[in-house]
Design a protein that fits this description.
The chain is of the alpha+beta class and 228 residues long. It has helices at 2-13, 40-49, 80-86, 115-123, 147-150, 154-175, 183-201, 209-227; strands at residues 52-54, 66-68, 71-72, 91-94, 97-100, 104-107, 129-131, 137-140, 143-146. It contains eight helices and nine strands. It has a three-stranded antiparallel sheet, covered by helices on one side. A hairpin with a 2-residue loop joins strand 8 (137-140) and strand 9 (143-146). The chain is flat and about 100 Å long.
């Protein structure tokens, strides 16, 4: 009944907000609408920040690949070694404690978790589930933003921008493209190359005379040393 009322509300609201009816297919499970002045990306970040982790229960689906990391555990040697092995976790004993020998993927995204694995993950302190609002889509100014668009890695995004700037700068320098960022450096480079050419060809330009004389003096001293 709740989904039906939300569907009717969105369809009626589309008269004043064209495109808002595109949210209807996302009304699944236990849906709710959030009204905010935040932009879609800020809203997604806020909801993600307020989520908390929780143990997974038997019968639930893995939200992503579940990996048990290598390292020590708080378990004393005993039947737990066999229990870990039964779910694909390689374990041994070190300093009187059970240790996990290597990272072990115990479930793939979408796998239904069995009771034994759920119990072991809880004992290991691994909480794959997230508790909080799951943002599925956002409507803003006639545009629909899906979850996969909003869930961006900010650090990766910043790194991509930094790399793109560096690559564009290097390309402009190599291709001789004048931009506000490259002009000064390109003029300096051209000056150095022109000066080096003048010195090599003994062209008496103002900027090259001192270097030409220094080179000639060094050659004279070298010749004097050879001839005695």
């Amino acid at each position: 009944a709740k989904r039906r009322l939300l569907k009717i509300a969105l369809e009626q609201a589309s008269k004043d907000k064209p495109g808002v009816e595109k949210l209807v297919p996302y009304l699944k499970g236990m849906p709710a609408l959030i009204f905010t002045k935040d932009n879609p990306f800020a809203l997604s970040k806020t909801l993600k920040k307020n989520k908390s982790s929780a143990p997974i229960k038997a019968g639930q689906k893995a939200p992503n690949d579940i990996i048990v990391p290598a390292g020590p555990t708080g378990f004393a040697p005993g039947p737990v070694i066999g229990q870990l092995g039964s779910v694909g976790i390689a374990a041994g004993i070190d300093a009187g404690k059970v240790v996990i020998k290597k990272d072990s993927k115990v479930a793939k995204e979408g796998d239904v978790i069995k009771e034994e694995l759920a119990a072991l993950l809880t004992r290991l302190g691994i909480e794959p589930m997230e508790i909080g609002l799951d943002l599925t889509a956002v409507y803003e100014n006639g545009e629909l933003f899906e979850k996969k668009v909003l869930m961006i890695d900010e650090q990766e995004y910043l790194n991509n921008i930094t790399n793109a700037h560096r690559w564009a700068f290097n390309l402009a320098m190599e291709a001789g493209i004048l931009t506000p960022e490259t002009t000064e450096l390109m003029v300096q480079k051209a000056f150095r190359e022109a000066k080096a050419l003048a010195v090599e060809a003994v062209i008496y330009a103002d900027a090259a005379i001192e270097a030409i004389l220094a080179k000639a003096n060094a050659q004279c001293l070298g010749l004097k040393g050879v001839t005695g």
